[in-house]
């Protein structure tokens, strides 16, 4: 599982101007950021890890 944020110009500007982490995440997601929760979901669907393992580390909860 991983989280990946490519720092494009808009994210760079937010960082330089002390943007909030929420705003940086919002713009990052808009620009294709891979969040940890989505990475975990993908690995469960691919059979690489189990739902119980992802729940154990606190990334997902059964609904």
Outline the structure in words.
The mean pLDDT is 90. The chain has 63 residues and is mainly alpha-helical. It has four helices and no strands. The longest helix is centred in the middle third of the chain and has 10 residues, at 21-30. It is 54% helix and 0% strand. The protein has one domain (9-56).
Uncertain runs: none
Structure class: mainly alpha
SS summary, helix count: 4
For the record, the count of structural domains works out to 1
Question: What is the secondary structure topology, with strand pairs?
Answer:
Elements: H1 9-16, H2 21-30, H3 36-45, H4 51-56
Helix pairs in contact: 1-2
Keywords:
single chain, 63 residues, mainly alpha, elongated
Short summary:
This protein is mainly alpha-helical. It is built from 4 helices and no strands.
């Amino acid at each position: 599982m991983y989280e990946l944020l490519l720092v494009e110009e808009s994210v760079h500007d937010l960082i330089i101007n002390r943007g909030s982490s929420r705003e940086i995440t919002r713009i990052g997601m808009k620009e294709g950021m891979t969040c940890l929760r989505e990475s975990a979901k993908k690995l469960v669907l691919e059979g690489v890890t189990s739902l119980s393992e992802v729940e154990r580390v606190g990334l997902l909860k059964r609904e």
